[in-house]
Amino acid sequence: MNARVSPKALEQAAEWLVRLQDGATSADHAACEQWRSSDPQHALAWERAEKLMSKLGTLPPELAMPVLSRAPGSRRAAVTRIVALMLTVPAGWAAWRYAESQPWAGEIHTATGERRLVTLADGTSVTLNTASAIDVRYTAEERLIVLRNGEILVRSASTPDARPLRVSTAEGLMQPLGTVFNVRRHACSTELAVLEGAVRVTPAHAAQNVQVIGAGTQTRFNARHIAPARAIDPALSAWTTGMLLADQMRLEDLVAELSRYRKGLLRVDPAVASLRVSGAFPITDTERTLDMLVSTYPVDAVQRLRGYWITLTPRG
Question: Which positions fall inside the FecR protein domain (predicted)?
Fold first, then answer.
């Protein structure tokens, strides 16, 4: 399951999977077997397809059927969805299953590629970046913003309020001291950058380990430890103006950031992953950013599945 499988083989396996689920004949099954045995890459891709089918069989029909939908015109969508799932089986299966069976976490949220500014009851403003979600819990004792996913820029209200304002993540609690600050959730940590004022940080499982992060600095912390503060990266809050700034950034890292703002799969061939890239790239128009990269650097953007899957490869 960990062997590298070509995108073309995965797409063909997905096509066969949908075809065999839709009233296939014995001839169809024989043709699929011939395809599978004709190339080692086909065999690997089909192994992933079978793994996916076994997982789908454990789900209730209302969750499994959208993946293999037989509705008119949905064949292409089904193939696209299956390819995306096969890329992550089995490591990403639990996350996909949870996402399919649960509503979007957070009462205020943004879709992929969307930014949203909200003003809370006390005048505090919160700008949500792409695919972000927050809960707001204002009580008589405190004003709490819970960041569940993604990234936010918080500008605390200028009007005095006796209740402390706090922002929480799974890793800990942040209390601004009259400030503007950026918070981003990662897989197992929280990244904090303070643009104005200061923020007091308390890790979730180490209440004694409190640090105050001042203006112009940033840090990263988990539930127990806070990294030493360092000078803020000027590019960190560029997303609020719709831009992604790169200064000699590895192409692989830039693409990882860009992929946050577009649906589908965006990948980099290992041969150009370390290419250094500089510039200001619009996150509101990812197609334009890809065009900029292709016109400036020795790479091509190879599209599959009608643009759902794009790989940057060496120009050749």
Answer: 107-200
The string of pLDDT tens digits covering residues 162-210 is 899 999 999 999 999 989 999 999 988 999 999 999 999 999 999 899 9
The CATH number of the domain holding residue 172 is 2.60.120.1440
Q: Of the candidates 119, 116, 174, 178, which has an alpha carbon nearest to the alpha carbon of residue 150?
A: 116
Residues 51 and 88 in one domain: yes
Query: pTM, whole model, 2 decimals?
Result: 0.70
Number of domains comprising the chain? 3
Residue-wise pLDDT for 231-276, tens only, equals 999 899 999 999 999 999 999 999 999 999 988 778 888 999 999 9
**Distance (Å, whole) CA 112 – CA 149:** 12
Q: Phi/psi class of residue 242: alpha, beta or left (left: φ > 0; alpha: ψ in -120 to 50)? A: left
Q: What angle do CA 249, 219, 225 make, to 5 degrees?
A: 125
Considering the chain, what is the average pLDDT of its residues? 83
Report residue 278: phi and psi, to 5°: -135, 150
Residue at which a domain ends, from 175, 208, 231: 231
- Cα–Cα distance between 282 and 100 in angstroms, integer? 30
d(CA 33, CA 27): 10
What residues make up the domain containing 261? 242-314
Please check whether residues 64 and 154 belong to one and the same domain.
no
Read off the pLDDT of residues 146-165 as tens digits, 9 standing for 90 and up.
Answer: 999 899 999 998 888 889 99
* 259 and 172 part of one domain: no
Q: How far is it, in rounded angstroms, from Cα 174 to Cα 164?
A: 11
